[in-house]
Amino acid sequence: MSTPQPTATTILAAAVDRIGGTPRDGQVRMAQAVEQAMEREEHLLVQAGTGTGKSLGYLAPALARLHSHPRERIVIATATLALQAQLAHTDIPAAVAAAATVTGRSVSHAILKGRTNYACLHRVIDGAGADQGSLLAGADVAESLRSGARADAATVVGAEVVALREWAKEQLDTEASGDRDDAPTHTAAAWAQVSVPVRECLGATACPFGDVCFVEKSRETARASQLVVTNHALLAIDAMHGHTALPDHDRLIIDEAHELVSRVTGAASAELGPAQVERVARRCLGAVDDDLGVQFLELADELTGVLTTIEPDRITDPEAPVFGVLARLREVTREVAGVLAKSDDATDKQAGAAAKEILDVAERMAVLGDGDVLWLSDRERGGRWLVIAPLDVALLMRDKVFAQTPTVLTSATLKLGGEFEGVARTVGLWRSERLADGATAVGAPRKRHDEVGQESGAADAGGAGSGAPASAQAWRGLDVGSPFDYTRQGIVYVAAHLPAPSRDGIGPEALAEISELVWAAGGRTLGLFASQRNAEAAARHCRAELPSFTTLCQGDAQLPELVRRFVAEPTTSLFGTLSLWQGVDVPGDTCQLVIIDKIPFPRPDEPLMRARQQAAQQAGGKGFMTVAAHHAALLLAQGSGRLIRRVSDRGVVAVLDPRLRTARYGSFLRASMPDFWQTTDRETAIAGLRRLASEAAG
Question: Judging by DSSP bridges, how do beta strands 74-78 and 227-231 pair with one another?
């Protein structure tokens, strides 16, 4: 009698039991839907609210699939390296061990990162320079210097480089991974001395350390594994460069999918500044003839000069002088890169690769196709830089990812304004392709990457509900809810009596409201602000008005230290900006009030967002709702989601922007937030906070 094949449900039950958890209906529904989507080769968008346990919700069906199809491979892509590490080192091993109790065998798994996340042995060993002997280990020297008030930054970086080289050699000797996450404490400047940019890598066949390269080993391990964890940026690079970054895979799961567009946009963007041109030109000077080297170096000055003549904004005039400088830079770097490519010297080859990178960026900027947005950025520390970014990444994702791999996208925030279609559109899945409940997609199965090559998978959309052809990207949306009872656990208070926010900064009325709310909550406040200036003004006001409470502000110390203090000191408040809106997980009494000072629309002078709004309008859509309101809704959903992190949490989200209640788009934004009980009555919010503070104080 044959043994029945394990299902997502049986593996999920074993995993939940192994970690001592309790069954959750939403998690079971998610696992079953993911299993079905993988079987049918459909795309699936799953909104799984905080507390659902979405990692196990997709890992269980992935493991069931790999058990029944052992020759297949599944890739999981998440937003950040930190989340990638959590999956690879905690969630997946636990799920794999639980699945093994059901299936009788274990699934192989690996983590895959970008090249710069691994030490480069060529730089570590051949590029180390003179031996820096010491009676102390490099890590001890670096730590001693960091703790000394008189140590200058260059000395600290030097000691960190020594420590990193020692560590990298130990990693080689012990056949470890050379992963930056395992390295001793260091700065970005020190890590740059022991790693190599993608363009400057000599390649496994040309590098004397190719056979023991940490990066090559990580890719070999991934190619031999059934389950591979990567990040959104590497997924984007794989899509843009002919599927050379990731191993072939049969199914794809995108976690934290609400960040996908932002991460893919970042990976597909490029920058060019005078300091960068000068630095690369100086690297090339000794390897090219004097005239060519001087031309290259002088172009840094030309770029500086032309950038001082234009305002920080989008550049659209094809006759603008900057395009002439870019054209000359393109020609000179093409000649430099050509000369250095013929050199037998590894240092020259790497310098040539750096010149080739400038060539590619200058060429892209000089051509300025319809699909790109070019602008001048004026940075407080870095000076003036040219930035180019894709106007849209929807077709890239559609043609190079979804057309080739059945994909599950999941997040706690995928329904904006109460529907999936907004997020789906931004990644290249059209409204007309959504399948109604009970409908199935028909047509031939998708081809693997190695069969498809560079062919585009985009095609005309089929009708929703009646079954779409395989060339269309049939997809479903599923909201499995949350184990939290938001209407009983939280209140959204909209301060409708306050004046609308001003561009001049946070007003006195809003500051008074903040201190009153923080007083009522007894501290215990996470303040999410539209700008650092507003956060700092609110922190100063609360420190003056509420001296018995501690108010921390982003910038007072390193963010992890501020969050640690916020968690450890229940009556302490923490104010900050965008980095606090997502990813801060503070359950319990320490966070009973979340203050949002302003609807987080993109800045009206932000060139890329403005260009996307204009493009949406030209296409017949509503630019503001398609882009600005979508952006704000996503952040509001994430920010207000900081309040309730477990079933016992209770509290208030206070939005000090009356437009959330009074503007026509307010209902769309409110529908994107957790389903809290809503009020505009200030006294109701104050009374609720006072009651919670009294209970917490005990």
Answer: parallel
